Amino acid sequence: MRLTIQLACKVVAGTGFLLLATFGPGACTYVPFDAPRNEVEPERPSLHSNVSHRIDRDVARAGGRSGFIPLLDGNDALGARLSMIEAAEQRIDIQSFLIKPDKAGSLVSLALLDAAERGVAVRLLVDDVFSTASDEQLALLASSPRIDVRLFNPLSRRSPAAMNYMLDFGRVNRRMHNKAFIVDRSMAIVGGRNIADEYFRIDTETEFSDFDVFVAGPVVSEIDEAFELYWNDRWSVPVKALTRRGDGAAPAEVKRALEIHAETAAAGIYQHAVGSSYLERIRSGRVAAKFGHAYAVTDDPSKLKVPVRDGERLLAEMLFGQIATARSQVTILTPYFVPEDWGADLLIDAARRGVRVRVVTNSLAATNHPYVHGGYMRHRKDLLAAGVELYEVRADAPEVLGAAPPGEGEHLTMHTKLAIIDDRTSFIGSLNFDPRSIKLNSEFGVFVDSREIASAFLREIDEDLRKYTFKLRLEPDGGLLWVYQNRDRPEVFAQEPGAGLVRKATARLTAFLPVEGQL
After folding, report:
1. Is 53 annotated in the active site?
2. The one catalytic residue among 103, 240, 415, 504
3. How deeply is 53 buried, as exposed, middle or buried, from its count of CB atoms within 10 A (0-12, 13-18, 19+)?
4. CATH 3.30.870.10: which residues of the chain?
5. Rounded (5°) CA angle 470-459-489
6. For residues 91 and 107, what is the distance between their CA atoms, to the nearest angstrom?
7. For the residues of 276-317, what is the DSSP string, one character each?
8. Which among 194, 209, 494, 499 could bridge 503 via Cys, Cβ 3.0 to 4.6 Å?
9. Active-site entry in 10, 100, 103, 177
10. For 464-492, what is the mean pLDDT?
């Protein structure tokens, strides 16, 4: 419902009919931005935990470099998070674009409650708009004396969501898209995953192909500093300030609902996650971290509080500066690719310099936001004509590859945000290559300088492109072809493969309307 409202407001704003200027500041909806804040502290504060001691010892041998272990599989990514929570001794800091009250959200929430009972301080910062966990469910977590939950830039609880968008569009349209998962200020997970079933391959018809990395070493302190920047911002409002006694279900009912989800999952999902063979290989040392010098980059919260034209796009400009000076190759994985004219020119210029440029994004059938695809479609031919290689994820690839039974309709959607520049620089983070991430939202990511890590990522991507994507081809007559090459005889499609009429109409509508800057 919120997505429908948001898109409707985008379209209205883009066509000039949203008369927000009619409403003065007094009409804006109320949010308690100045509500009192209390800081949670661990039961037994210490500069170092046992975990941090072990990590510091390993990192010291790496000469100041940080260690990285990829988490490609959703089950492994969930198991890594739950294992980190169980290992925590001092503090857990989580920043997420959304959290849902599903099985994954319930498992994480109850693990956080258990950690707090052990004396661990827990801080959870979540953007408000797309989170479906209710205020009461989040307030249940915050009822623990060692757990603090804050919502970033929340909608007013005194007005319906649609009223917030109508009267305060300039504020509520700007979102915190950052993601970080930090334990004892010594280890972290960064990447594209939020906290919901679809990101961890739990009971969902859509398989979200996502990516993040486990990180240990000096860069974790920078990741933690980025978290603190948002945690201490005025727009981070304690969830307790947004709830009123008597609203919604009783706390006991909410907790029981969480437990039911977790109990349903515990016999299978929890054990399968924390006991995954990949995590066992990591624990035994059979999967070793790869090391590289790394630095974290975050947009400042102030980006969200000024007109779009004045916002400082620190993370995007850092990444695009790397692309502009690339010498050999650029590979970008982004679920939503809306380059606008300037972004298309950036990639075209690189290709004309002799740089191999590859962009991997979702096909119209694969994307979970068909309206965003409209902002990408009009750039395809120009990019291909300049030599940029375009790949689109095949939605039915699991069935084609035999990983899903025929006719079950398992749907593949890519959510990975990853870029590799030349043979040594890798970017892992929350940034999509679209105007919303670049201009409207705040984003976070880590840059890694390591030939070993970049080469490993590129090898994995090269293998996956053949299995999971169409390669687009521009014909002499200006037509587009989608070519799938993972068979003895390539399959060739002359129209958006697998996309139905509604998806095609949605994409064409947004391609026609002047809303590209909102996508």
Report:
1. no
2. 415
3. exposed
4. 46-284, 299-514
5. 35
6. 18
7. -HHHHHHHHTSS--EEEEEEEEE--GGGGGS-GGG---HHHH
8. 499
9. 177
10. 93
Catalytic residue at 467? no
CB 190 within 8 A of CB 215: yes
Selecting among 300, 345, 396, 422, the annotated active-site residue is: 422
Based on the residue annotation, tell me whether 93 is a catalytic residue of this protein: no
Phi and psi dihedrals of 279, rounded to 5?
A: -65, -35
* Catalytic-labelled residue, pool 10, 379, 417, 471: 417
* Domain 46-284: homologous superfamily in CATH: Endonuclease Chain A (3.30.870.10)
Give dist(CA 387, CA 330) in Å, integer: 12
Give the whole-angstrom CA distance, residue 155 versus residue 168. Answer: 9
Among the listed residues 10, 100, 103, 179, the single catalytic one is: 179
| Separation CA 50–CA 90 (nearest Å) | 10
Q: Which amino acid is at 31?
A: V
Hunting for tokens 């971290």 — which residue is that?
Answer: 289
Check: CB of residue 483 under 8 Å from CB of residue 470. Answer: yes
The amino acid present at 349, given as its one-letter code, is D
Q: How far is CA 144 from CA 114, 123, 228, 246, 260, in A?
A: 10, 11, 21, 19, 20
Question: In the CATH scheme, what is the code of domain 299-514?
Answer: 3.30.870.10
Of 417, 413, 405, the C-alpha closest to 443 is 417
For 181-215, the pLDDT digits (tens) are 999 999 999 999 999 999 998 877 778 899 999 99
Question: Which secondary-structure segment (H or E) carries 149?
Answer: strand 147-152
CB atoms within 10 A of CB 291: 22
364: left (phi over 0), alpha (psi -120 to 50) or beta: alpha
pLDDT for res 158? 83
Q: Supply the pTM of this predicted model.
A: 0.91
Which residue out of 168, 184, 197, 233 is catalytically annotated? Answer: 184
Q: List the one residue out of 155, 195, 148 whose CA is nearest residue 172.
A: 155
On the 0-12 / 13-18 / 19+ scale of CB atoms within 10 A, 14 is middle
Place of tokens 């797309």: 130
DSSP string, 379-406: THHHHHHTT-EEEEE-TTHHHHTTSS-T
**Measured distance CA(216)–CA(185) in Å, rounded:** 9
501 Cβ contact partners less than 8 Å away, ≥ 6 residues apart: none
pLDDT tens-digit series, residues 55-89 = 677 777 778 899 999 999 999 999 999 999 999 99
422 counts as catalytic: yes
Q: What is the pLDDT of residue 21?
A: 38
Question: Does the annotation mark 255 as catalytic?
Answer: no
Residue pair 94/124 in contact (Cβ under 8 Å)? The answer is yes
Active site residue 415: yes
Mean pLDDT, residues 452-460: 97
Beta bridge partners of 220: none
